[in-house]
């Protein structure tokens, strides 16, 4: 079983990624030589140490160390869903599996992402004593999430024709999903981000030995192969691609 915990990822290009096991924390803020932070938000309006993220099993806690600024935690997979973190609020639990932490800046807000990919769900079958059996699924996919639409678009050619060698690129996926309510706000960069998230956290595809010397095409190919092999996307899912 994969270890529980959360992942913190910056919005830099390339992004920095930090994995937190339960009990581990990551700080964020402007930082300084005397006050280093794990996630640097280089804005003069942001405190040197603006807050922290603490991993707790399958969720996480956020602390706002600012005395005046309110932070916002957005759910990019939801319909505008967000929560506010008041100044000086410590260890506030965050319920979202995929979150965008937004910190006010001087010209525009700074942000970073937090993933809690190990959420547990009760089994629909009951144990003999009448209690639900909390069973983790091998590949915990949310069929209402944007990443599932992207996975479905990747697999669409093979679902429609099993012999098709076509694996859509990020720009092609962007065109394919345009106009779908569940894909609102997607960009090419966001699609690549979700593909990386699927490969690393959701389907946990194996990285080839020569990955550093190859393009990221291996991720798309591996995702399609694994998703179809285990019926994670099926022909009936194609209805989700209809506006």
UniProtKB/TrEMBL annotation:
This is Serine/threonine protein kinase. It comes from Actinoplanes digitatis. The lineage of its organism: Bacteria, Bacillati, Actinomycetota, Actinomycetes, Micromonosporales.
């Amino acid at each position: 079983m994969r270890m529980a915990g959360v992942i913190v990822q910056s919005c830099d290009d390339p992004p920095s990624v930090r994995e937190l096991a339960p009990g581990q924390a990551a700080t964020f803020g402007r930082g300084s030589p005397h006050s280093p932070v794990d996630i640097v938000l280089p804005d003069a309006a942001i405190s040197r140490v603006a807050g922290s993220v603490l991993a707790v099993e399958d969720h996480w806690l956020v602390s706002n160390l600012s005395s005046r600024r309110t932070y916002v935690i957005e759910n990019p997979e939801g319909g505008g869903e967000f929560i506010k973190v008041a100044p000086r609020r410590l260890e506030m639990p965050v319920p979202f599996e995929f979150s965008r932490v937004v910190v006010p800046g001087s010209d525009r807000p700074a942000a970073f992402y937090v993933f809690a990919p190990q959420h547990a769900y009760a089994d629909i079958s009951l144990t003999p004593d009448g209690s639900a059996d909390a069973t983790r699924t091998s590949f915990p996919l949310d069929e209402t999430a944007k990443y599932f639409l992207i996975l479905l678009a990747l697999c669409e050619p093979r679902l429609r024709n099993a012999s098709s060698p076509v694996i859509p690129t990020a720009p092609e996926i962007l065109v394919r999903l345009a106009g779908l309510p569940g894909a609102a706000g997607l960009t090419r960069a966001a699609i690549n981000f979700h593909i990386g998230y699927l490969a690393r956290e959701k389907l946990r595809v194996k990285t080839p030995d020569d990955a550093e010397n190859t393009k990221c095409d291996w991720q798309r190919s591996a995702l399609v192969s694994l998703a179809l092999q285990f019926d994670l996307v099926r022909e009936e899912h194609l209805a989700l691609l209809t506006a």
